[in-house]
């Protein structure tokens, strides 16, 4: 049977990059850490680490064991927290990652309310549009928008939202758009993190589906919705953006919704979390809270 303390020491060595740093992080001596990792290797019958004077590196077997060890420790923590929750409510740390725009507009108000309900819980929020590894980066939950790629994670739908093509009034005055053909040939600002940013299917007022292939030039490309919106407001072309993000800019007259008689595919907002045997109760509670939070908010 594996000794979880030794597994945790091995993980600490890998993440710290050496035995000395791992000993400091775990408040143990270097000799204790080294002994326990050697014992773990003996019990497994394989070498997990290649040791050098400056740094340690994972062997092939060590890489496989490291990934599984992270899951094992996360499941162990989840099991302990679930048992403790029945006695004192949610506690510990909850780590969540969101995109900057949706996090600021939607998730942070919900996290604030959730935190007030569970005062013993520490909430750590990170903003990033880049893909992350929930296991190796030790996140409990990530909020992701759009269509999800196949992965080993679980996902729960939080809500759906519309995406709309918009442009600045001054730009539209110079480049009027009155048809799908004109929209396809216009100059676009592209969100480069989308898998197929130039290929779309739209639904007209007659409920007929039509393919839209963007053939116009794209001199400006960016990797966040906020930056894309800023380019569009500056008159750099058409941008396809979440309706919840551009709603106020449209109301202020900074942007105009182009061809509102056509609808682009609605997008999902998902809570993504590791596919572990024991999902922490606080993670399940937060997902339920986010779903209820969004369903009860006024449109």
TrEMBL record:
<dbReference type="InterPro" id="IPR000847">
    <property type="entry name" value="LysR_HTH_N"/>
</dbReference>
<comment type="similarity">
    <text>Belongs to the LysR transcriptional regulatory family.</text>
</comment>
<keyword id="KW-0238">DNA-binding</keyword>
<dbReference type="InterPro" id="IPR005119">
    <property type="entry name" value="LysR_subst-bd"/>
</dbReference>
<dbReference type="Pfam" id="PF03466">
    <property type="entry name" value="LysR_substrate"/>
</dbReference>
<dbReference type="Pfam" id="PF00126">
    <property type="entry name" value="HTH_1"/>
</dbReference>
<feature type="domain" description="HTH lysR-type">
    <location>
        <begin position="2"/>
        <end position="59"/>
    </location>
</feature>
<keyword id="KW-0805">Transcription regulation</keyword>
<dbReference type="InterPro" id="IPR058163">
    <property type="entry name" value="LysR-type_TF_proteobact-type"/>
</dbReference>
<keyword id="KW-0804">Transcription</keyword>
<protein>
    <submittedName>
        <fullName>LysR family transcriptional regulator</fullName>
    </submittedName>
</protein>
């Amino acid at each position: 049977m594996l000794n979880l303390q030794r597994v945790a020491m091995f993980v600490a060595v890998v993440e710290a990059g050496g035995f000395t740093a791992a000993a400091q992080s775990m408040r143990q001596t270097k000799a204790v850490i080294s002994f326990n990792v050697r014992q773990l290797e003996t019990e497994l019958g394989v070498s997990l680490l290649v040791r050098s004077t400056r740094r340690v590196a994972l062997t092939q077997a060590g890489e496989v064991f490291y990934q599984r060890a992270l899951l094992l420790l996360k499941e162990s923590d989840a099991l302990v927290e679930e048992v403790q929750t029945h006695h004192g409510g949610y506690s510990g740390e909850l780590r969540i990652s969101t995109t900057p725009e949706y996090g600021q507009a939607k998730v942070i108000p919900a996290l604030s309310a959730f935190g007030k309900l569970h005062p013993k819980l520490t909430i750590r929020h990170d903003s990033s549009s880049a893909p992350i590894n929930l296991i190796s980066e030790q996140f409990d939950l990530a909020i992701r928008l759009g269509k999800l790629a196949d992965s080993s994670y679980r996902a729960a739908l939080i809500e759906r939202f519309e995406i709309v093509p918009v442009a600045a009034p001054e730009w539209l005055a110079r480049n009027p758009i009155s048809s799908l053909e004109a929209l396809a040939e216009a100059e676009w600002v592209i969100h480069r993190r989308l898998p197929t940013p130039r290929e779309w299917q739209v639904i007209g007022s007659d409920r007929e589906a039509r393919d839209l292939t963007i053939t116009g030039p794209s001199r400006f490309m960016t990797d966040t919705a906020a930056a894309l919106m800023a380019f569009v407001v500056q008159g750099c072309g058409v941008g396809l953006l979440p309706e919840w993000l551009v709603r106020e800019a449209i109301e202020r007259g900074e942007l105009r919704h182009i061809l509102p008689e056509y609808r682009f595919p609605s997008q999902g907002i998902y809570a993504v979390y590791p596919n572990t045997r024991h999902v922490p109760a606080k993670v399940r509670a937060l997902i339920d809270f986010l779903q209820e939070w969004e369903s009860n908010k006024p449109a």
